Amino acid sequence: MWVDLGEIMVAKAKCSVCGNKIDISGIPPRLEGVKIYCRICGATSLHKF
Known about the structure:
Elements: E1 12-14, E2 21-23, E3 34-37, E4 44-47
Antiparallel strand pairs: 1-2, 3-4
């Protein structure tokens, strides 16, 4: 049985508050974007592809 996962992202996003680079590899892209939580400052941002 084969499972098609589509394209898997290999990228880094930048936190809009503190500028920390966050690894978002392995997250499938979504039309509305991906919510990213920063472990350094605690901010949640929306990253669009």
